[in-house]
Specification:
The protein is an alpha/beta fold and 337 residues long. The chain has 11 helices and 15 strands. It has 3 domains: 2-91, Rossmann fold (3-Layer(aba) Sandwich), CATH 3.40.50; 120-185; 190-208 and 244-335, ATP-grasp fold, B domain (D-amino Acid Aminotransferase, Chain A, domain 1, 2-Layer Sandwich), CATH 3.30.470.
């Protein structure tokens, strides 16, 4: 079967997270070839007509969609799937609607809250303080659209006594966050990532992973910053390990995380694979931070680590994502042991 591996066109001055996209292209393409498929990599920009022409030239049966930030902007992520919809080719991962809804973080949070799923209260510039988080407090200033922890560092965690002070903090950090930012209440607690992967008949919630901040000195915000993900020489990169082994006292909490992750999959109509990120506060209450409809598939990424923990090879992961593109996105969800 002919498979086009669709990805962001990456320039020579690309950020580390953008260059990682090419690592994913190579790893996925290699696995597809080992599975017996013919592959062609196609990089896309905001020139959608050119992208459509390049895809049509390859005449694929399926497109393996790895696009994350066309032209370096996460807010355009849904344009790739919209393009594929317009030319009528099957593709892996989330459909256009789910990609848009989950990529706009405040919009996703509104949907989560409307369906009774806890997510940290937030403030978007221009909204009423009555709709936002309680003040005073500590907050995380985040990008509305960008992923990969873009713009997140220790300075992203701010204290604010009122809405005006919080809005000022959002404005100050907006340029490094892709131009649009918001603030959400900072949950001081444990952080978990739950990966989900489609199977033959059911979607599987893979083993939960916790990001550990044990080596962080007192006062340092316990967050997965950009440095923790991408700067290999940084303190954060070397001191945010993930773990999969938990004591029995965590069993109930982990089961609840799996239940909520499955609920998020069904709520947003996700397909193929996804990841749900949580914080768990001191009282053991889980809060959904984000729903990622196309998590990183680099061989050293957290999604792949969770799959390996479940006994799956990288090629098996790629095969299951590809197979899911050929069936409707309405499988039931189950949790792995």
């Amino acid at each position: 079967m002919k498979v086009v591996v669709l990805h962001d066109a990456v320039g020579p001055d690309a950020r580390p997270d953008e260059r990682d996209g090419l690592v994913q292209v190579e790893a996925v393409s290699r696995s597809l070839r080992r599975l017996g498929h013919a592959t062609a990599a196609v990089g896309v920009t905001l020139d959608l007509a050119a992208g459509a022409g390049a895809i049509a030239t390859e005449r694929p049966k399926v497109v393996f969609n790895l696009v994350e930030s066309p032209a370096g902007r996460g807010r355009f992520i849904h344009l790739a799937t919209a393009l594929l919809d317009s030319i009528g080719v099957r593709y892996t991962g989330a459909r256009t609607e789910a990609m848009f809804l989950t990529s706009n973080k405040p919009l996703a949070k509104r949907i989560l809250r409307a369906h009774g799923i806890r997510t940290p209260p937030w403030l978007v510039p221009g909204s009423s303080p009555a709709e936002g988080p309680p003040l005073p407090g500590r907050f995380m200033v985040k990008s509305v659209w960008e992923d990969a922890s873009l713009g997140l560092d220790d300075g992203a965690v701010v204290a604010a006594s009122d809405a005006d002070e919080l809005r000022a903090a959002i404005r100050a950090r907006r340029p490094r966050l892709g131009g649009q930012a918001f603030a959400e209440a900072y949950v001081d607690g444990r952080e978990f990532d739950l990966a989900l992967l489609a199977g033959d008949e059911r979607v599987e919630v893979l083993p939960p992973a916790e990001i550990c901040f044990d080596a962080f000195p007192p006062g340092k915000p316990r967050i997965v910053s950009y440095s923790a993900k991408w700067h290999e020489q940084s303190f954060e990169y070397h001191h945010t390990p993930r773990r999969f082994d938990f004591p029995p006292r965590d069993d109930r909490m982990l089961a609840e995380l799996k239940r909520i992750a499955a609920q998020c999959w069904e709520l947003f109509g996700l397909c193929g694979y996804a990841r749900v990120d949580f914080r768990v506060d001191a009282d053991g209450v889980p809060w959904v931070l984000e729903v990622n409809a196309n998590p990183c598939l680099s061989p050293d990424a957290g999604f792949v680590a969770a799959a390996q923990r479940a006994g799956l090879s990288y090629e098996q992961v790629v095969a299951r994502i590809l197979d899911a593109a050929l069936v409707p996105c309405d499988q039931p969800v189950t949790a792995s042991p």
